[in-house]
Structures are given as structure tokens and as C-alpha cells.
């Protein structure tokens, strides 16, 4: 018979498919010699990796026991196991298991009569997966056989199979609920219910009665490096990438595991460490925050300062890039887009630094061309002093904020008592919430929201109590320095290093805007503007400042009015403190203290240099003698300028102004 003589009703595609399937079956039957016995397969599984390698054995203890039991069952059925599928350390909560899927693929292409398992729960622990797997085996004409349970294709066997599958699902769900309850209870008592983060170690000890105790201890190899990471980043001198490189140089690595060796901490991992409240003594479990029983590696104040630094750098866009500049971040184009720095290299090998508008690259319609960085720097240098205060305005700042400090200090005792009472009530309320949750009186989502509300309020109260524990002397001292530096703002900025200029810009301005005519406009920080509006009625917001001759860094209008000065307070303070950059940071902190309605002291942070701290106390100044005051008044009466007298007697211009106006 030829192909042309076949009946027209035969489907050639189905015929080829049937022939291919028969060939596969014959090939599989020839490849596996069953000696006349029925072919069968077995599926072996344990739930955890610990079970799979227990006692140091390659397959642990359970897998060999299941294999022997499956072999005995195959002998009883007159079958031979042609292939076994092993699942070491895989949970049955899902059917997406490699060995299980390989087995289901195998039975569709190979003739098998029995699938032998040790128990029904080895195959699945939920009824849906069990029904799908059983249906797949039945479609392949394969009988599911349990070594320890009486299940078959009879009605009673099917009933028993369904009951056993339901019991397996119940066991899994109930176990998960009990484990979760125990972990929640451990967290509420301050314990760590999961793997401890880097810097800590999970340890197991035994008490006098032989009971195992699981606890968390400080990692002696990594704890000091984690503490250094928080302390260093809180200073504001480090970026995530530079700090990660420093930690790698100091030897900080992740903990090794049987599958992965130790490696240096990445920038992403470092960010996760710096934002983890576990290191300051608290832990979060299922969205609820608890007080931890472990030893904190950093104090709460340092941790909060780190969060502030992270938020500030993210908000102002000061992220590490290939090319850095102290104006990156606050410098904006008049179109509203940030100015970005580019450093192209010409054919002669010379590298040029330009600021370009990022909005033009995004095609927002801006037509600004690139501007050399030196040109922008000169424009800002020549106009920065216009943002300062006059001596009268500085005196007004001292007077008004000094009165505020006096009022706050007078009400400190009363406020401390009220805050302490409120704190005790919130602690009791939090305890009642946890007890009500354990009694199933309130749902978990309500517990989370209430715990978050209480935690936020308690943090604010504790922070305020810490502030009230100190006097307002530091704030007054910072206020004096702040007023001094604002009267000579242009001079200070001119003599600052790039890193110090970045600090000043961040403290005073949200944006520095450059328009098409290269006129510089300064948009002050909201706290700065609010403080000026409160203490100086009618004070105009910092507006556009026309750039004068770059060679003349003073403000001609203020000089002509006798209000200008080229004396730098930074030099004067630097001579007494020995570190100008620390002084600028100190003044930044002083501003933050003075613009608020409360004192927010910052503990001194030690630096690598011996005897240098980030906020040194101001040294006492020798009072002027009566002869020196008379000499000042005589010089002023003879027409000598205030700035010249200040330099001669090594005092501030405001002091000269105060002593000579009588």
C-alpha cells in the first residue's frame, strides 16, 4: 500500500504522532530491563537542609529510610523501581519543586505503573496541589501508592486519600500559626526572632537544666566596624560609596555560609545597615516595633543623625558622581532643572569644567548653553555677601531669640513633668495593646497602627526630654556665633574651602538659581526665612543679587553705607580653634538650634586628630581694658574705620561698634 492509496479519512498528523509515541515507549522499554516486573518510580523528600545532611551524611537519615521502605513496597507489588526522584530540603507548601516537576515530565514520556511515596504529605501539603498531582498521575494510568497509608483507587481508598491530604494541610497551616505566635511572643519580650544582622551573632547555649537557649551576642570581629560606620556617616563627611570602600579597607565582610563565602559590604548593603533600627536597640517584626533585649551598637542620637544625613543627601540630590563640585545639588537653572557638571577633554588634552542644564538634555525647552564653573563661582562669590545681616539686624536676632530662650528655660521644669507623665501613660497604653492582641481582642492591623502612633509620640517625648536635660547656654553661645557670621557672610564664604562652602549652602539655601542673564538668585531655606521673618519684622526675603565685578567681592551699596567689611570671622575663630571646617559645621549646628523654638544640643563627636571635636566649646576671651576702649573711641573719633580698629585690637567689628557708640 502506498501513501496515495490510503483511505481519505485518515489524519496523517495523528498517525505520525501515534507512531512517534509508540517508538518512545519501545525505546524506553528496551532501555530499562525490568526482568518481567512492573516498572515503578519513587519520590523521596525531606523538608529542611538540616534533615538532608544530618549527622554529616550525604543524604542524612530520612532519605535512606524512605528508599528502603519504597523498595520493600515495590517488592510486595511485584514491581521494580526504574527511577527515583529525590527532593533534599524542599518544603511541600508549593508544587514548584524541581524533582517533582521532573517526575511529572518523566511519567508523560515513559511507561510506569506505580508511583511509590512514603506518606501523602511527602507529595504535597495542600489539597489543591495534591489533587492536581494525583490527576496528572491518573491521566498517565499510574497508581499512587503510599508505604504507610492505605490509599488506592477504590471509593474507600479515595476517601482515605482525601482525609490524609486535609490532615497534611491542617498540620502545615497550624504549625505555621504556632511558629508565628512564638516568634511574635519572642519579639514582644525583646528577643530576636530571625537571623541577626551583620555585627551580631546568633548563638545557642544550655542552661543548668540542660535547656537550649537561643540568644544574640555582639560579633567581636564586626561590631566595632559597624559602630564606626554609623559614627563616621553621622559627621556628614562620607558618602555611601566612600564609606563602603573605607569599611572594605578596614576588613568588614559579610558572614560566610556553606553556599557563599564572605565578601565586602556593598553600597546597597551599607544603606540597609544604616537604616536598620536594630542597631540602636529596637526591632521590627511584622510591622510592629519592639524594644530589643540585645546590646545596641549605636546610641539613638547618632542613629537619628544618620537618618537625617541620608534624607538630606537624597533630598538635595547630592549623590556621588564621577565629577564632584561644591555647587552640585543646590544650583538650579531658571527653567527649574538642576545644573549638572561636565568635564570634557579637548584635543590638546586640557579638561574643561562646565555646568549645563539637565532640563535641556531632557528637552524641556531650555536653551541655556554651557557655562564654565569658574564663571559661576565668581558670580556667586560677588553676590553672596548680600544675603547677610546688618549689625542692627544681628542685634535684633540676639535680643528676640535670647528672650525666647529665657522663656523656654523658665518653663522647663513644668514641661518636663508633663512630658514624663505623658510618657508613663503611653508606656502603659502600649502594654495594654499587646495584652489585648494576645487575647484576640484587637486585630493585627489595628495593633500596628496604634503601635506606630505610640512609638512616634514616645520618640518625640524622649527627644524633647533629652533637650530639656541641658541648659540653654550652648544655644546662646551658638546664637552669638551665628549672628557674627551672618554679618560677615560674604567674607566667610570667600575664605571657605569648597567642602565648607557646601555646608554653608546647605544650611542657608534650598536653591541657588542662575537665570539667562547670569543673575544669581538665592532661595533661602524655609527655616531660615521663617526665623528672619519672626525676629526682623519687614525683613525682605533674599532676592536677586546682581553680580558686580568679580574682582570686587564686596557689596558696594553696603560699603558706601558703612556696613561692609572684609574682615573674616572665620579667620578669627579659626585661629582660636585650629580647624576652620569644624567651625563652619559648628555654626551650621548653631543655626539649627537657634531657628527652632527649642534647644537641640549635639554631643561632640571625636575625630581622628587628637583633641579635635566637631563642636568645640568657645574659648574664653580676655575682656577689653578701659585703656583699650578709650583707644578705640579715640581712633573712631579721628575717622579710623571700624574694620581697621577691629583688626588692630583683634576683636569683632560688632564689639568695636558697641564700644564706640555711647
From TrEMBL:
GO process annotations (BP): DNA integration
Molecular function terms from GO: DNA binding; DNA strand exchange activity
Domain (Resolvase/invertase-type recombinase catalytic) ranges: 39-190
Protein keywords: Coiled coil, DNA integration, DNA recombination, DNA-binding
InterPro entries, A to Z: DNA_bind_recomb_sf (IPR038109), DNA_bind_recombinase_dom (IPR011109), Recombinase_CS (IPR006118), Resolv_N (IPR006119), Resolvase-like_N_sf (IPR036162), SSR_resolvase (IPR050639)
Superkingdom, natural source: Bacteria
Domain Recombinase stretches: 197-317
Keyword match Lipid metabolism: no
Positions in coiled-coil regions: 444-478
Active-site residues from the entry: 47 (o-(5'-phospho-dna)-serine intermediate)
UniProt-listed PANTHER family: DNA-INVERTASE FROM LAMBDOID PROPHAGE, SERINE RECOMBINASE PINE-RELATED
Name by which UniProt lists this protein: Resolvase, N terminal domain
Amino acid at each position: 500500500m502506498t501513501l496515495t492509496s490510503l483511505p481519505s479519512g485518515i489524519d496523517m498528523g495523528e498517525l505520525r504522532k501515534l507512531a512517534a509515541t509508540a517508538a518512545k515507549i519501545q525505546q524506553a522499554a528496551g532501555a530499562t530491563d525490568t526482568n518481567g516486573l512492573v516498572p515503578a518510580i519513587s519520590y523521596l523528600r525531606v523538608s529542611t537542609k538540616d534533615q538532608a545532611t544530618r549527622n554529616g551524611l550525604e543524604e542524612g537519615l530520612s532519605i535512606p529510610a524512605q528508599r528502603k521502605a519504597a523498595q520493600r513496597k515495590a517488592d510486595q507489588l511485584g514491581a521494580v523501581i526504574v527511577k527515583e526522584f529525590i527532593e533534599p530540603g524542599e518544603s511541600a507548601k508549593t508544587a514548584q519543586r524541581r524533582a517533582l516537576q521532573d517526575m511529572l515530565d518523566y511519567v508523560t514520556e515513559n511507561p510506569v505503573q506505580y508511583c511509590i511515596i512514603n506518606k501523602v504529605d511527602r507529595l504535597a501539603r495542600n489539597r489543591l496541589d495534591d489533587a492536581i498531582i494525583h490527576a496528572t498521575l491518573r491521566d498517565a494510568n499510574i497508581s499512587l501508592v503510599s508505604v504507610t497509608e492505605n490509599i488506592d483507587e477504590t471509593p474507600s481508598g479515595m476517601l482515605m486519600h482525601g482525609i490524609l491530604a486535609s490532615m497534611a494541610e491542617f498540620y502545615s497551616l497550624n504549625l505555621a500559626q504556632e511558629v508565628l505566635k512564638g516568634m511574635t511572643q519572642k519579639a514582644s519580650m525583646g528577643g530576636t526572632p530571625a537571623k541577626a544582622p551583620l555585627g551580631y551573632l546568633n548563638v545557642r547555649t544550655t542552661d543548668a537544666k540542660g535547656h537550649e537557649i537561643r540568644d544574640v551576642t555582639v560579633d567581636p570581629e564586626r561590631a566595632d566596624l559597624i559602630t564606626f560606620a554609623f559614627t563616621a556617616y553621622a559627621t556628614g563627611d562620607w558618602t555611601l560609596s566612600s564609606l563602603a570602600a573605607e569599611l572594605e579597607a578596614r576588613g568588614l565582610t559579610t558572614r560566610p555560609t556553606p553556599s557563599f563565602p564572605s565578601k565586602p559590604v556593598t553600597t546597597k548593603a551599607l544603606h540597609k545597615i544604616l537604616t536598620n533600627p536594630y542597631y540602636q536597640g529596637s526591632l521590627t517584626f511584622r510591622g510592629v516595633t519592639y524594644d530589643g533585649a540585645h546590646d545596641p551598637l549605636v546610641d539613638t542620637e547618632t542613629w537619628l543623625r544618620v537618618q537625617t544625613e541620608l534624607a538630606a543627601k537624597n533630598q538635595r540630590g547630592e549623590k556621588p558622581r564621577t565629577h564632584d563640585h561644591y555647587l552640585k545639588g543646590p544650583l538650579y537653572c531658571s527653567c527649574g532643572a538642576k545644573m549638572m557638571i561636565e568635564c570634557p577633554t579637548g584635543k590638546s588634552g586640557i579638561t574643561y569644567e562646565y555646568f549645563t542644564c539637565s532640563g535641556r538634555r531632557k528637552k524641556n525647552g531650555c536653551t541655556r548653553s554651557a557655562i564654565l564653573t569658574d564663571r559661576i563661582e565668581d558670580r556667586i562669590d560677588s553676590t553672596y555677601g548680600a544675603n547677610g545681616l546688618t549689625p542692627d539686624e544681628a542685634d535684633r536676632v540676639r535680643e528676640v531669640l535670647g528672650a525666647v530662650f529665657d522663656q523656654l528655660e523658665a518653663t522647663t521644669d513644668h514641661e518636663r513633668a508633663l512630658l514624663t507623665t505623658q510618657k508613663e501613660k503611653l508606656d502603659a497604653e502600649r502594654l495594654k495593646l499587646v495584652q489585648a492582641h494576645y487575647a484576640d481582642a484587637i486585630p493585627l492591623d489595628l495593633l500596628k497602627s496604634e503601635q506606630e502612633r505610640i512609638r512616634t509620640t514616645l520618640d518625640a517625648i524622649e527627644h524633647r526630654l533629652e533637650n530639656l536635660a541641658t541648659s540653654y547656654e550652648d544655644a546662646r553661645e551658638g546664637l552669638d556665633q551665628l549672628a557674627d557670621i551672618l554679618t560677615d557672610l560674604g567674607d566667610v564664604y570667600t575664605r571657605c574651602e569648597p567642602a565648607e562652602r557646601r555646608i554653608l549652602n546647605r544650611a542657608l539655601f534650598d536653591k541657588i538659581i542662575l537665570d539667562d542673564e547670569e543673575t544669581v538668585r538665592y532661595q533661602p531655606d524655609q527655616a531660615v526665612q521663617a526665623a528672619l521673618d519672626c525676629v526682623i519684622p519687614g525683613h525682605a526675603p533674599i532676592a536677586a543679587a546682581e553680580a558686580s565685578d568679580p574682582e570686587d567681592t564686596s557689596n558696594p551699596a553696603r560699603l558706601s553705607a558703612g556696613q561692609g567689611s572684609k574682615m573674616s570671622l572665620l579667620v578669627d575663630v579659626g585661629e582660636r580653634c585650629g580647624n576652620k571646617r569644624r567651625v563652619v559645621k559648628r555654626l551650621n549646628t548653631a543655626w539649627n538650634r537657634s531657628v527652632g523654638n527649642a534647644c537641640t544640643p549635639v554631643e561632640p563627636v571625636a575625630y581622628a586628630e587628637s583633641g579635635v571635636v566637631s563642636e568645640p566649646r568657645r574659648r574664653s576671651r580676655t575682656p577689653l581694658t578701659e585703656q583699650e576702649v578709650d583707644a578705640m573711641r579715640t581712633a573712631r573719633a579721628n575717622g579710623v574705620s571700624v574694620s581697621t580698629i577691629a583688626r588692630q585690637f583683634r576683636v569683632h567689628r560688632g564689639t568695636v561698634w558697641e564700644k564706640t557708640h555711647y
